[in-house]
Design a protein that fits this description.
Elements (H helix, E strand, L loop, with lengths): L7 H7 L17 E3 L3 E6 L14 E9 L4 E6 L11 E7 L10 E4 L7 E6 L4 E8 L8 E8 L15 E15 L2 E12 L5 E2 L9 E10 L2 E7 L2 E3 L20 E2 L4 E4 L1 H4 L5 E2 L32 E4 L12 E9 L1 H5 L7 E13 L2 E6 L13 H4 L4 E6 L5 E12 L2 E10 L6 E7 L5 E6 L16 E4 L2 E5 L16 E9 L3 E10 L7 E9 L6 E5 L12 E8 L4 E7 L6 E7 L1 E6 L7 E5 L11 E2 L6 E6 L3 E3 L2 E3 L6 E10 L2 E5 L2 E5 L1
Parallel strand pairs: 1-3
Antiparallel strand pairs: 2-9, 3-8, 4-7, 4-9, 5-6, 5-8, 10-11, 11-17, 11-19, 12-16, 13-14, 13-15, 13-20, 15-18, 20-21, 21-22, 23-24, 24-25, 25-30, 26-29, 26-31, 27-30, 28-29, 31-32, 33-45, 34-35, 35-40, 36-39, 36-43, 37-38, 41-42, 43-44, 43-45
Length: 668
C-alpha cells in the first residue's frame, strides 16, 4: 500500500509540536495508551533503543492498543512521516510484560523507507505497538501511524457476511465548465464487493447500487463540503479485480464475490442516469425506480444539472492558495443494507488543482490514495493534530460522523470549528447545540446547496446564543420533509469564537424526522465552562452492541454545590449502568468477566451518584457526582485542588455479560 508522502502544505497545516515522548513513550513499561482506529502522531527524535527479542530497530517508542474486534489489523507509516528521509520500522508485541516476548510481526521498508504490518487481533486483547527506525539509521523524527481494521496480501482475507459494497477507488475528475459562478464536476469510481455473497446490480429496477459524490475543502482549520451531486444509478457490473480476488458472477446483473466494477468520470456524469438523493433511503438501501417516480424531476437543461456543483471561486488558487481538497463517494444498495454492511459505504481521496481551466472551471486531479470505508471527515484527524472526529450511531438506525477542533486566535480567544456528516441516516439532522463558554460570538455556518430540482430548500440555519449554550436549527424543520436538514452523504459546517479554552465535552444533535429519540448526544471539542475542571477522554474501550465503544464525557459543573455531571454516551439503549471512580488509572482487559477494559486502578469507588441507572433511548446515561464525597471503598473522599480523578461506566450489554466505556480523566 503506497501512499504519496505528506506534502509541505499538509505539514504546515498539521503544525506538529515537539512533544517528546508524549507521542509514544520511550519505555515499554510506560507505553502510551491509544484507542480506536485512525491516525496517531509519534515522535522518536529523542528516543533511546530497547532490545526486545527477535526484532532489530533503533529509537523505539511504544503505544498500548486494545483491539476493538477480532479480525486482522494493519498498522502503517506509509506516506505518513513528516521528517524528510525518516526510515521507519514497526513491530507488534503481545502486551504481557516489558520487555515483551517476541514480536508477532516486524517490518521495515514495506513502502520505500516506511513500514506496514498486518496481524490477527482478538477483541479485548491489548497489544504493544513499537515504532522506531531502521537499526542503522542516523536519526529519528516525527510522523503518524495509521491503524485500520482489515488488511491482507493479495485479497480480502476477511469478507463481510453478505453483500458489501465499498468505494474501492476514486479516480479522474471531469470538469464540465462553469455558469454563473458555479462549476460542475463528476468523478470516476470503482465499486468493490468485499462481502461473501454477490451484490445485486440489476438495471432498470430498484435492485442496484447508487453512488453519490461530494467535494470538500480544508483550509485554515475549517473543513467544508463545497458541493454535492445527484446519485448515480448502476446498470451493469463488469467483473474485475481491485480490492480482492474476484469470483465473477455469471451475469452482469450482479457483482461477484471480491469483484470490482469501474465507472468512468464521464459515465458517472451522464445526467440521464443521475437521480435525486431524496429517492434513496441510505439506511435501508431502498431505491425508488424509475428515476423521478417519487419526486418531480425535470429534464437536465444545462451542463451543471445533477452533477457535483461547486462555487467556482472556492477552487480559485488566488483566494485559496493553501487549500486541501478531498472528493468523496458514498454508496447505497438494498442487499448491502439488509446484510448490515452499510457503515463502510463512504470513501475519499485527496485532489489537487492542475492550474488548467475547462470552460471557466478549475481542473482538478487525484493525488495520494483512496481511503476505503472512511468518509472525508475522517481525514480531519490527519489534517489537524487537535481535531476530534468520531462516528456516532443513531439508536436502531444509521450513522453520523461529527468532527470538531479549537483554533487559538491569540489574546485568549479561540475559534471552534464543527462539522456534521450524515453517512446513512434516513432520519437526518436538523439542529446542533453545545456549550459556548465565555462570550460566545461570531456564529457562522456553511453547507452544500441543493440544486437541479432536488426537493430540499437552501435556507441557512440561524445561529443563536442562550445562556452558556450556542446552537443552530434548520428553519421550519418540524414536519417538513423539504427542510434544509443534513441528509445522507451531506456535511454541514459550523463555527463560533469564545474566550474559553477547549476541553473534551458533549454536544447535542436534533434529529429531523422518524421514530425514536429526538436528540442525540455527541462527543465534541467544546469551550471549557468558567471554573470547570479540564477533562479528557483516556484509555481504551471495546465496542458494544451498538457497533461503537461507549464514551465517558463531562456534563455541567456547579462549583457552588461541588457537583459534576458525568455523561456516558454510545451505550446500548435500555442497559443498566453504574459509574465508577478512582484516583489511579490502569488497564485491565476483561475485568470481572466483562468483554471490556477496566481503566481504573487502586481503590475503586462504585455507584457514583449513589445509583445504578438505566440507559435512555438515545444511548445516554447521566450521573451527578458529589465531589465532596466520592465513594472510595467503605468511605468517601473529597476532591482537592490539584487532584486528578478517573471516571468510567460499567454497563450490561445484550451481546455479552458486560462492558466498559472509555474513561474520563478530570483535572481539578
Amino acid at each position: 500500500m503506497l501512499r504519496t508522502p505528506i506534502t509541505a502544505t499538509l505539514v504546515a497545516a498539521l503544525a506538529i509540536p515537539s512533544l517528546g515522548f508524549a507521542q509514544g513513550d520511550d519505555l515499554c513499561s510506560r507505553a502510551q495508551n491509544i484507542s480506536g482506529i485512525g491516525i496517531f502522531p509519534f515522535d522518536n527524535s529523542a528516543a533511546t533503543t530497547g532490545a526486545p527479542a527477535g526484532c532489530s530497530m533503533a529509537r523505539d517508542v511504544w503505544f498500548r492498543w486494545v483491539a476493538p474486534a477480532t479480525r486482522s489489523v494493519t498498522v502503517s507509516t506509509c506516506g505518513l512521516t513528516t521528517t524528510p528521509g525518516l526510515d521507519t520500522a514497526l513491530a507488534v508485541h503481545p502486551a504481557g510484560s516489558c520487555p515483551p516476548s517476541a514480536a508477532l510481526v516486524c517490518e521495515d521498508d514495506s513502502c520505500r523507507l516506511d513500514a506496514e504490518v498486518t496481524f490477527q487481533a482478538t477483541a479485548g486483547e491489548a497489544y504493544l505497538l513499537r515504532v522506531g527506525t531502521w537499526a542503522s539509521a542516523s536519526y529519528g523524527g516525527t510522523g503518524f501511524i495509521e491503524i485500520s481494521l482489515g488488511g491482507s496480501v493479495g485479497g480480502c482475507s476477511e469478507p463481510s457476511s453478505g453483500a458489501d459494497v465499498v468505494a474501492g477507488d476514486l479516480d479522474e475528475a471531469i470538469a464540465y465548465g462553469a455558469l454563473g459562478g458555479t462549476s460542475a464536476y463528476s468523478f470516476a469510481t470503482t465499486a468493490c464487493n468485499v462481502g461473501d455473497e454477490e451484490l445485486l446490480w440489476v438495471a432498470q429496477s430498484s435492485d442496484h447500487p447508487v453512488v453519490a459524490h461530494g467535494l470538500y475543502r480544508f483550509e485554515g482549520g475549517r473543513l467544508e463540503q463545497l458541493g454535492t451531486g445527484w446519485a448515480k444509478h448502476g446498470f451493469a457490473a463488469i467483473q474485475r479485480e481491485l480490492c480482492c480476488d474476484c469470483i465473477p458472477s455469471g451475469s452482469m446483473s450482479a457483482l461477484g464475490v471480491g469483484c470490482s466494477d469501474p465507472y468512468s468520470g464521464y459515465l458517472n456524469g451522464t445526467q440521464s442516469t443521475l437521480g435525486p438523493r431524496v429517492e434513496v433511503d441510505a439506511f435501508t438501501g431502498a431505491i425508488a425506480w424509475p428515476i423521478g417516480s417519487s419526486s418531480n424531476v425535470q429534464p437536465a437543461s444545462s451542463l451543471l444539472d445533477r452533477r457535483v456543483q461547486v462555487p467556482t471561486e472556492a477552487l480559485d488558487p488566488v483566494h485559496h492558495p493553501t487549500a486541501i481538497y478531498l472528493a468523496e463517494a458514498v454508496y447505497a444498495a438494498p442487499d448491502d443494507a439488509a446484510a448490515g454492511n452499510h457503515f463502510d459505504n463512504a470513501s475519499h481521496r485527496p485532489y489537487e488543482r492542475t492550474g488548467a481551466m475547462v470552460w471557466g472551471a478549475h481542473q482538478i486531479e487525484p493525488t495520494g490514495v483512496t481511503e476505503r470505508g472512511l468518509p472525508a471527515i475522517a481525514s480531519w484527524a490527519r489534517l489537524s493534530a487537535t481535531a476530534l472526529v468520531r462516528e456516532v450511531r443513531v439508536p436502531g438506525e444509521g450513522a453520523l460522523w461529527v468532527g470538531s477542533d479549537a483554533i487559538p486566535l491569540g489574546a485568549g480567544v479561540w475559534r471552534y470549528e464543527l462539522c456534521v456528516f450524515n453517512l446513512n441516516s434516513s432520519r437526518g439532522v436538523a439542529g446542533l447545540a453545545l456549550p459556548g463558554g465565555a462570550a460566545p460570538r461570531q456564529l457562522g455556518m456553511s453547507y452544500p446547496r441543493a440544486h437541479s430540482g432536488e426537493p430540499r430548500r437552501n435556507d441557512s440555519w440561524p445561529g443563536g446564543i442562550a445562556g452558556d449554550r450556542v446552537g443552530w436549527t434548520a428553519p421550519g424543520a418540524a414536519g417538513d420533509t423539504e427542510a434544509n436538514a443534513i441528509g445522507w452523504g451531506t456535511a454541514f459546517s459550523f463555527w463560533f469564537t469564545s474566550d474559553s479554552p477547549p476541553s473534551d465535552g458533549v454536544g447535542e444533535l436534533t434529529l429531523h424526522r422518524g421514530a425514536g429519540p429526538a436528540r442525540l448526544p455527541v462527543p465534541l471539542r467544546v469551550p471549557l465552562a468558567t471554573g470547570a475542571p479540564v477533562a479528557e477522554v483516556v484509555c481504551d474501550a471495546v465496542v458494544n452492541s451498538t457497533g461503537l465503544p461507549g464514551v465517558m464525557l463531562p456534563g455541567t459543573f456547579d462549583g457552588s454545590t461541588s457537583q459534576l455531571e458525568l455523561r456516558a454516551i454510545g451505550l446500548p439503549p435500555g442497559a443498566i449502568g453504574m459509574a465508577l471512580v478512582s484516583a489511579a488509572q490502569a488497564s485491565v482487559p476483561m475485568a470481572g468477566g466483562s468483554v471490556g477494559t477496566l481503566c481504573l486502578g487502586g481503590t475503586i469507588g462504585r455507584s457514583v451518584g449513589a445509583t445504578t441507572s438505566g440507559v435512555d433511548a438515545a444511548g445516554e446515561l447521566d450521573v451527578i457526582a458529589d465531589l465532596a464525597a466520592l465513594p472510595q471503598g467503605l468511605s468517601t473522599v473529597g476532591v482537592r485542588p490539584g487532584d486528578t480523578w478517573f471516571f468510567q461506566v460499567w454497563h450490561r450489554d445484550v451481546q455479552a455479560t458486560s462492558n466498559f466505556t472509555q474513561a474520563l480523566a478530570v483535572h481539578f
